[in-house]
Design brief:
Blueprint lengths: L14 E4 L10 E5 L12 H10 L9 E5 L8 H11 L5 E4 L2 H14 L10 E5 L8 H12 L4 E6 L2 E7 L3
Parallel strand pairs: 1-5, 2-3, 3-4, 5-6
Antiparallel strand pairs: 6-7
Helix pairs in contact: 1-2, 3-4
């Protein structure tokens, strides 16, 4: 009985893999939740936030990505978020209004703005799924939208098992 050679057709194909994990944020994402500053869990008093800003150790956010938000159902004046952001600015590498998920969306959107999409011109692209790191769904949607303008076809998943998403008409 003759043994047949096993051929890896995936590695020999013209598929180009786009891995969104490669755009994952470098550094620590920290959160500042203003709910802890609310008086009786309901309102934010100016004196309380000013005292917090004076007493807080802002150096702990050095080179961090910091998300500022309030998880409580309370009305927080816009200036409160601004005060916290101003205190953070000398230390944090990036500050956004929102939680950790909003920070991830902002980081991925920023990274997608810097991708050279022309390198995918007329390519058969697989947007890699099954990430080890958390990639927000919005990043997958944005990548697909941007690739549609340049790629010959777009698939999702792994090169050995993909879901076809788009194929440019011939």
């Amino acid at each position: 009985m003759k043994e047949e050679e096993i051929v890896n057709r995936v590695s020999g194909s013209a598929l180009v893999t786009f891995n969104l994990e490669d755009l994952s944020p470098k550094g620590t994402i920290a959160e500042i939740d203003l709910k802890d500053l609310l008086f009786q869990g309901l309102i934010l008093r100016e004196k309380d936030i000013r005292d917090f800003i004076k007493a807080h150790d802002w150096k702990q956010y050095q080179n961090n990505l910091v998300a500022v938000f309030c998880s409580a159902d309370a009305v927080i004046p816009t200036w409160a978020y601004m005060l916290v952001s101003i205190a953070l600015q000398p230390y944090a590498s990036k500050i956004i209004f929102g939680d950790r998920h909003a920070m991830l969306i902002a980081i991925f959107n920023e990274a997608l703005d810097h991708v050279d999409w022309e390198k995918f011109r007329d390519a058969k692209v697989v947007i890699k799924g099954c990430s080890d790191l958390h990639v927000p769904e919005s990043a997958y949607v944005e990548a697909a939208v941007r690739l549609r303008g340049v790629a010959a076809s777009i698939m999702y998943g792994e090169p050995c098992s993909t879901v076809p998403l788009f194929k440019r008409p011939k």
